[in-house]
Amino acid sequence: LSEINAWFTNIELFIARFDKLAAVAVILFFFLVKTIVGFIPFSVLFIGTGLVFSPPIAVAINVIGFGMLIGLKFLWGRKFGGGGFHKLLLKSESLSDFMDFHGKGNKWMLVVLRFVPVAPVGTVSRAYGATDMKIIPFVVFSVVGFLPRLISWSIIGCNVFDPFTPAFLTPISILLVISGISILFLDILFKLIRKDDKNEKE
Length: 202
Fold this sequence. Notes:
This protein is mainly α. Helices cover 80% and strands 0% of the residues. The protein has 10 helices and no strands. Helix 3 runs antiparallel to helix 4.
């Protein structure tokens, strides 16, 4: 625990040495870096913001950074295609129709996919970039789906040095509940779609 605290302290000191506007610019720059280099976890970015700013400001900055990142990934998909994940989903006619990948994209499934922690943010963004969905609705529905996780991580960042308090443990509990429900829902949904796809082939 002391090693983790020391690591977060270094992050806090690095960001805090800038004035407030410069600190925001540094955080948003890291979001841009993550657009290109995917090894930076979202949790570190969100927690890092929460270390320096109060929860409302941290959430606002993280929303801007997240929206900027997924918007760039979306535009990448629009220009260069949805990638391997998109091509894989198109092989299933039922799944492709359900996701509306030949049209404007299923916006409610986008919200669900943002809930699911195992759904890669960049991969989903590129797949939707290959649809006819407009970028503004894409960013809005993505943020809506990701907001519970984003808020939770931001609050964790504000309380990271008090790990045994309700303020720290409550958002972690919320993250676990959201993850479990969303994965269960997605698993049931895809099983139904695969069953429908199998019935059509028969």
